[in-house]
């Protein structure tokens, strides 16, 4: 008997399009677009696109480490305050490092079971909102938050904000 061919689960994650926010002010920072495309059952939305900054990656890694126990969490590119070269070069190096970090994370079954990772990758909730959602204090469940974002973001459904 032929064994059924199970389609291989593939998750592509890309970190791209770095943008400086609040340029020229003391609180300027760079954020990056995280594009995810997957056929994995682990993910709620098959495609997603969010923007995150380095500080949020640092938070994510700390949370993953806390929950993963003995499972090693991949490293992030360093903070490197002393950087020789252009800012663009630094941003590009960091982009590559962030992408490698996420590529390793999404291949790890233990890390994939952390709902913070899913909200980080597939919703535009802020860090405190992610925390609230994971602890069940948000207005939506993790899945609802992701689906809501997927629908609003990809323009499948144009819905009015129904806030009284």
TrEMBL record:
It is found in: Cytoplasm; Endomembrane system; Endosome. It is a peripheral membrane protein. InterPro entries: PX_dom (IPR001683), PX_dom_sf (IPR036871), SNX10/11 (IPR043544). Residues 10-127 form the PX domain. GO terms for cellular component: endosome. GO terms for molecular function: phosphatidylinositol phosphate binding. This is SNX11 protein. It comes from Alectura lathami. The lineage of its organism: Eukaryota, Metazoa, Chordata, Craniata, Vertebrata.
């Amino acid at each position: 008997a032929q064994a059924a061919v199970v389609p291989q689960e593939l998750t592509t994650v890309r970190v791209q399009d770095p943008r400086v926010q609040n340029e020229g002010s003391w609180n300027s920072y760079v954020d990056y677009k995280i594009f995810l495309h997957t056929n994995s059952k682990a993910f709620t939305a098959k495609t997603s696109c969010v923007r995150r900054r380095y500080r949020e990656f640092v938070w994510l890694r700390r949370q993953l480490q806390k929950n993963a126990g003995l499972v090693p969490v991949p490293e992030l590119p360093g903070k490197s305050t002393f950087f020789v070269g252009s800012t663009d070069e630094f941003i590009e190096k960091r982009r590559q490092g962030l992408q490698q970090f996420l590529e390793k994370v999404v291949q790890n079954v233990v890390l994939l079971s952390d709902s913070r990772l899913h909200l980080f990758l597939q919703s535009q909730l802020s860090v405190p909102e992610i925390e609230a959602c994971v602890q069940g204090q948000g207005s939506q469940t993790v899945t609802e938050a992701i689906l809501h974002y997927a629908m609003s973001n990809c323009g499948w459904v144009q819905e009015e904000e129904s806030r009284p």
